[in-house]
Amino acid sequence: MASPGSGFWPFGAEEGSAAAETPGTARAWCQVAQKFTGGIGNKLCALLYGDAEKPVETGAKAAAPGAAEPRPTCTCDKKPCGCQKADVNYAFLHSTDLLPTCNGEITTMSFLQDVVDILLQYVVKSFDRSTKVIDFHYPNELLQEYNWELADQPQTLEEILLNCRTTLKYAIKTGHPRYFNQLSTGLDMVGLAADWLTSAANTNMFTYEIAPVFVLLEYVTLRKMREMVGWPGGCGDGIFSPGGAISNMYAMLIARFKMFPEVKEKGMAAIPRLVAFTSEHSHFSVKKGAAALGIGTDSVILIRCDERGKMIPSDLERRIVEAKQKGFVPFLVSATAGTTVYGAFDPLIAIADICKKYKVWMHVDGAWGGGLLMSRKHKWKLNGIERANSVTWNPHKMMGVPLQCSALLVREEGLMQSCNQMHASYLFQQDKHYDLSYDTGDKALQCGRHVDVFKLWLMWRAKGTTGFEAQIDKCLELAEYLYNKIKNREGYEMVFDGKPQHTNVCFWYIPPGLRGMEDSEERTSRLMKVAPVIKARMMEYGTTMVSYQPLGDKVNFFRMVISNPAATHQDIDFLIDEIERLGQDL
Predict the structure, then answer these.
(1) Contact 444, 407 (CB under 8 A)
(2) pLDDT tens digits along 103-142
(3) Residue 334 — φ and ψ, nearest 5°?
(4) Exposure check for the chain: N or C terminus, fewer CB within 10 A?
(5) Considering only CA atoms, which of 507, 564, 568, 502 is closest in space to residue 534?
(6) CA atoms within 13 A on the CB side of 575
C-alpha cells in the first residue's frame, strides 16, 4: 500500500486536492476499508491520517433513503474484524446513488461487493459436477417468464442485482468440466481477474497516451507469439482483433494490398480478378472475408482434402495453374492448422513450397491449432508455419484465455500500417512528445478497440510457457483416451480412421435398434436423427453438452473437442455413459 506521499489516493482524488482533504470523504473511505478489510482498514486509516488525526465527518449531507448508516470508526484489532458492517437497502436506491454521486462510496462498494458475491457463487458452481451445465428453457419460455424489456424509468439496485442472478441462472456454464460443446471452453481464474481489471480500466487501444501499459503489453506479447511461430527475433507486426474470422479477413486485406497497393484508393475495379484458395474443410470465415472485401465468394476456390481432412497439395497446385490459365490472379492461400470439425493440420511445408513457386501470399489459420506451438510434444504438427506470411492464432480456444482473444501475426513489419492507416489527425498527431510507433490504432480497421491482450499476458505470467504446455498436453491426452475407449466399443463408429491429431474426436453413436441393420437409405435416415436427439436430451437434463454436425456426404455425427483443463478421465467416462443412457431407446 502506498504512503500518502507516493501519489496514491482513494477514489481517484488527487493528493492535496479539495476532494482528497475533505474530512467526510476520508471518513467514508475509512468506513469502506473497514467493511471490506476488517481490522486492516483501521490500520490503513491510521497510516494515512495518523492515530491522532482520524477524520471526523462534519457538515455531511443527509443520507439518501436506504443508504448505509454511518458507523463509528472501528477500533478493534481482531482479525478478521467482528464489528458491525454497514447495511444497505437496495430497494430504495438507484444507479444515481452510486459513484460518482457525492458520498456514494459506501453504497458503491457494497453494491459491487454484492455483484462480486454473485459472480463468485457462479464461478464455484461452474466447477461443481453435481450442478447442471445448463438450465435449458426454450426461447418463448424465457421471454414469458421474465420481463426483459427496457423501460423509461430506472430499476432499483435491488432489481439490478436480481437481473444479474437471473442472467447467470440461465447462462451456460462454459467452465463446467462436462461442457464440450465449443472450441472455447473452461474458466481460468487469472484470466477472469484480468478481464475484470480490463473492464475497470475501461480504455481504448488506439494510442499510447490513453493505454500506455496495455499498448506495451500488446507489443511484448505479439513479439513473443511471433517468436513461437519461428520468425527470427519475433520480427514482424500484428494486432489483437475481435475473433479469428476478423483476423483471417485482415490477412486477406493485407495480402491484397501487398500485391495491388492501388486497391486502397481505387478499389476492386482497378485491379484484375483475384482468387484465393483454401481447403474444403476450412473455416467459413475465409468466404465471409472475401464477401466483405468485395472479392466475392465465387473467388474462393476450395481445395480437396484427404480422408483425414488435410488439404491435398497436388490439388492446390493444379487449381492455381487452372486459375492463372483463365486469367485470374491467385493472391492468397489460406492453410488451416487445426480444422474446426476434424482438427486436421494441413501439410504446411508442401503448401509453402507451392506458394513460393507461384508467388502467392501464404496465410495459416491457426485459430484452433495455434496453441500447440506451446507444446514441445505436439508443435511438430505445425512444421512449416514459420514460412507463412501471416498467421491467425486464437488464445481464447486451446489456451483457455477468456473470450475474446485472437491475434493476427504478420511477418513483414510496416505492411499492416501502410494498408490501413488513414492519418486521423485528431488521434494520431505527428508532434506528440513520445515515440509514435506505439500509437497502434491506425494500423487497425477499428477505431475503438477493446483491450484483449491483458488476459493472455497475465495468464502467461501466471503459468509460464510450461504451464500452458502442460494444460494443452493434458487436453490432447484426454482426446486420445476417449478415442481409445470408443474405437472398438460396441455402438460406436469413428468418422475417420486413426488417432486424431488434435482434441477433435468425431464419431457416430449407433443405438441398439440400428446395430443389426445393413447399410441402407433407411438406416442412414435414422442415424442422421440420433445425434440431434441425444444432444437435445443432454440439454434438457443439463448433464453435459457436445456438438454434432453433418459434413459432406456424412450424416450427423458427434464432434467432441476438449480444451477445458478442468476435464478429467472421469468426465470422459461420464460422457460415454450419458450418450448411451440417452440414446439406448433410439
Answers:
(1) no
(2) 999 999 999 999 999 999 999 999 999 999 999 999 999 9
(3) -105, 100
(4) N
(5) 507
(6) 33
